Model the fold of this input.
Amino acid sequence: MAATVTLADVARVAGVSTVTVSRYLSHATAVAPATATKVKKAMKQLNYKPNRLARALRTNKTGQLGVVLPGFENQYFFELLLNIEKAARARGFGVLIAGDRSLPQAIEELARSQAVDGILLASSSWPNDKPPQASIPLVCIDRPLPGTSSTFVSVDNVNGATAVTEHLIAAGAQTFGLLTGPLHIPAAQERKRGFYEAIEGKATCIREQEGDFTAQAGVNFVDELEELPDAIFACNDLMAAGVLSRLNEKRHTVLLAGFDGLASTTQLYPRITTLVQPQEELATIAVDKLIGAINGETETEQIYLPGTLLVGDTTTKGMPK
Done:
């Protein structure tokens, strides 16, 4: 049986003290980037896996992060979870997933269970009339939590939607169809705002419709069009995929763009032009901010990350005739 690799082994190979390795793993205090690189290299060389049970006994912490998601009907949240799990594992934490069908109850039960040290929340279903009762640190992803000062990490939806729309205008669009997300969600409101800021004085929206972030919403949008616009901006990739499917069936020529950059939709043909969210960076920042809060940091922030425009076939070639 192979000998168990210890914290001391990592410290020896990295050329640092065991205290430094412990600080790096716990994020209790900052470690210099050069030192962090040495520790990571040593851990990889030795195939060292942090022992969360031992750390829990030593620090009175579980080594687990709670993640509250609205489900996986929207693949965005599945891809987000994978990135959260990757970032947490790299820092020696596990994740415990909870659904948000009763969001206040999910948060309160996680907090009471003492099974997690903090909560990452990505949800749109918080009831506005009831403030959260979490007694442990909480960081919001993608959507802020009303009535709290919790740290919030999101893509810059306004500027992202503006970039997508300006690209469509540059591709020749003068008339638009806009398929928004559910407008009770801040991200959907922000993407709508970015769209209208971009077309002001340059183009016209001849049809706006509220969707639900599903592919079926995209299919329905095309079916209900009375007049074909030059371009359609569907405010997430799943709806854009639905639009693409129905446009292909009808053999219409329309410029099309989505939002999110999901792996599952960027591999379709024709490739959908979209605004790619920096999910790995977003998840990493959220995990680091939550670990910082767990370790006593009290500063909260609102962090907006820029997305990247990915130009696909649907704005360079249009749809097949």
In short: The mean pLDDT is 84. The chain has 13 helices and twelve strands. Residues 174 and 201 are 10 Å apart (CA to CA).
